[in-house]
Request: fold
Amino acid sequence: MAKATIVWTKIDEAPALATYSLLPIMRAFTKDADIEIELRDISLAGRILAQFPDILPEDKRVPDELSYLGELVWKPEANIMKLPNISASVPQLKEAIKELQEQGYPLPDYPDNPQTEEEKQIKERYDRCVGSVVNPVLRQGNSDRRLAKVVKEYAKKHPHRLRDVSPHSKSHVAHMKEGDFYQHEQSVIIDKDTKIKYIFEDKNGNQTVLKEVEVGKGDVVDGTYMNRKKLRKYFEDVINVAKEEDILFSLHVKATMMRVSDPVIFGDAIRVYYAKLFEKHGDVLDQLGWDPKYGMADLEERLKQLPEDKQQEIKQTIEEIYKERPRMYMVDSDKGITNLHMPNDVIIDASVPAVIKNGLQGWGPDGETEDVVLSIPDRSYATMYKEIVEDIKARGQFDPTKIGTVQNVGLMAMKAEEYGSHDKTFFPPSDGKMKVVDEDGNVLIEHCVNEGDIWRSCITKDIAIRDWIKLAVNRAKDSGFPIVFWLDEYRAHDKNLIEKVKEELPKYDLSDVDWYIKAPQDAMKFTLARFRNGEDTISVTGNVLRDYLTDLFPIIEVGTSARSLSIVPLIAGGGVFETGAGGSAPKHVEQFLKEGHLRWDSLGEFLAFEESLKLAYKQLKALHQKDNPRILVVAEALSKAIGKYLDNNKTPGRKVGQLDTRGSHFYLALYWAEALASQTEDKELAEKFSKVYAELKENEEKILSEIAASEGKPADVGGWYHPDDEKAEKAMRPSETLNKIIDALLES
Reply:
């Protein structure tokens, strides 16, 4: 019988460590259903190594697995379990390079300011690993993200805590009122297949072609820019307001996904907040080669190059600034890590919900919570955050036992709306014009820009837009929930999408579908009214709002977005199943290395794998005309096991001595075996797993004690970014008793 193949991605940090424990269980329990699970390495370290096959010795070369998966997603047999990976900042990239070098990989250093052609080529290779480079490759379909029914029901029975909000809260969202991306956006719908050129024209009429791209009929092309002078003026105003109102200053951007534009915005916040530092020590900072977009942590590291007295002089200036400026929102008060420490430390989709959970407060330098100004420069999405913050101030905190659910259908296929990242964000070298011109010489988009402004463009493919609308209609029909397109008729890009939505929707039977088109702020208002009333809604959004909302609402509903079900039905017919959220992954690894306790909750992997199995069944039937009902039996048993896992609260605890990730995996195996043993559809499986369940149950105490014995002391996995497989497996599979049971299944 033909086998169904599921690709399990090897990624980074906590979910990568969890894989060493979980994957053998998944393979053991699906072996008899003719499921093959392949492991493909798309971790940051794996991506780095794949860039240098010509430099690395033969025994240290690795295949380019990301490129392989990039081809697979365009085949109907694609079935990929995509775990959370690092969207690396440059500082993280450098750390990974250093670790690999220390492990004996002869990689070149990352050149910050490449001078030679060789250095430029090296930087170009490394830059392919920075930011959100995995998702645009794998997401050749649109996003269907929601909470599984079992997860929502559990949250209502066992609600997480949301702190009450003071009726006198001064917390608020502050955004630019002019000069931002929202104001300057221009957008066109391409009327025929063509090539477009991105051109910079200086004041003397000299033109430089920056990029050339092929586009198709119906594609939407945008261009916009942010005025850096007005951005810095905005930061100065917000900082002054925070000082006057005696509240914390915070900045919320996405310097990972929008890896080109947002680090620069982040750097400008540093330039303004620490203006005195640049005034007094600008020459020294330049000599150190420090770029503010890398954060204050990078400066701290570079200061070590200076004589002790000069270091102290600069540190003294920084301390003076902290006394003169408003107190800053902290990532880690105990360690003195501020909001402006590293660009990847405060990511808007996780950081704003954290403030909401905390009663509209952030952590201050003294370790206490305080009101905070949430600085979100661009109006494109800041307005919807403003709406929810003001709603909470007016109506109070949400009650997880009473609220509805907000699902999402997100436009992301084929790099849709990849704002501020990758290859279409430019910084004009002087005052002049940025133009988008087609091959007939027609100027499609044109902006007068100043030197250093942030000019960005994105292309949203017509096929992706139409697939997104189809997915929204299908979800509405399947769920019975209304769909709300979060589109603003006064924003150029959204106006073109509205035109396509209105053109496409009449092609479907909408007799049982309630649908709306509302600007983000109004859509949030409409959705929150239903949400507070216990009613369910599907938000239908572009790529960036997909990213933001699929963290925001699950965090409010169940305490974490890691418990969301994230499915990408691929345009070619396969599927990608995304699991969890990696925002807390670094802290989990830090704890594990220090005291041998990992608290990564693999629930996201459990839920996604159930859906992946269901797709495997359909793929076998459609592609190979093979009916293998055993796959559905295994999937249904997994669903029951997940329900029991939640009901019995077998999620990992925070502290040594409590159940950890490895123990939670044992309980999944125990409950899964129990469900397979008790089902009646497949007698052979029931007989086999009756013995497995009995063995696991009989040894429950012994297995847990073997796991517990490995805790309370440092764990060695051989590397943060590039663990040693043997060491990591030993650390993550410490129970010989459990290993024997699982390995026997694999060998049977």
Q: What stands out?
A: The chain has a mean pLDDT of 95. The chain is about 45% helix and 15% strand.
